[in-house]
Amino acid sequence: MRVGFIGLGVQGKYLAVNLAAAGHDLMVHDRRPEPVGELVALGARAGASGREIGAHGEIVEICVLDDEQLRSVVLGPDGVLAGAAPGTIVAVHSTVEPGTIAALAAAARERRVELIDAPVSGSETGARNKTMSYMVGGSPEAFEKCRPVFATSGPKITHVGPLGAGIRAKLAHQLIICVNMLAAAEGMRLGRAAGLPQDMLQKVVHEGAAQSLVADRWGQLRLAPHANGVFYKDLQLCLKFAKELGLSVPGAALAQQLLDSIVP
């Protein structure tokens, strides 16, 4: 399949590596030449712009950092929609505002292009090990066409509903991760101050009702240097979306304030 990929960051690069390894006709684009060169060495082609990526791909995957970057690579004069043919599917892996997804999907429909939201979980480790999970919002037809492409990086691919459902699920997911990290950090800090060995404390937590993936990995969890900024941005999105829904999420606000002390 002809696949375009934009955004070769810590996570995106390895999603693209997996596509190349699976034999797809891959064209990639990033502002930095280094990861593009790495993908070209693996058999991909380099695209000079989002427009060129849009013209190439039956499916175009986008894994950029935030709403501003996403709007630029999709809607800009050299963006994906400027080059995409009718019938192209644009899959957004970025964690952004639900309103951004809706606005870009509307612009895509004017070009007879279908945009779906397909945020991912797993970070660099999951992309490297092909254990990523996908939460996808969009039509069943687009989901089924994209499924084998997504499967190159992991088997956990869930169609959570219509357009926008994927990003709503991702925001809930990120809120739970961050509040869980806050709980694990405080509990582990209390246990260590009480003189409990780390391994014993983790065993007790694992075998009790407090068990979680975050707590299980706390002693070994080493997040990338950029993780703090990503979590802060994602929690900001959670807080804004919760306000739009009329919900109070004080745990998310507290976790955001204390990120510097809880992110390993």
Quick recap:
This protein is α/β, with parallel strands linked by helices and about 260 residues long. The chain contains 14 helices and nine strands. It folds into two domains: about 1-165, Rossmann fold; about 170-260, N-(1-d-carboxylethyl)-l-norvaline Dehydrogenase, domain 2, CATH 1.10.1040.
Structural write-up:
The chain is α/β, with parallel strands linked by helices and 264 residues long. A 6-stranded parallel β-sheet has the order 3-2-1-4-5-6, with helices on both faces. The chain is globular and about 60 Å long. The protein has helices at 12-21, 33-41, 50-56, 67-75, 80-83, 98-110, 123-129, 140-150, 165-193, 198-207, 213-216, 227-245, 250-257, 259-262, and strands at residues 2-6, 25-29, 45-46, 59-62, 89-92, 114-117, 120-121, 133-137, 156-161. It has 2 domains: 2-165, 3-Layer(aba) Sandwich (Rossmann fold); 172-262, N-(1-d-carboxylethyl)-l-norvaline Dehydrogenase, domain 2. Helix 12 (227-245) runs antiparallel to helix 13 (250-257). The N and C termini lie far apart (39 Å). It is 55% helix and 14% strand. The model has no long low-confidence stretch (mean pLDDT 95).
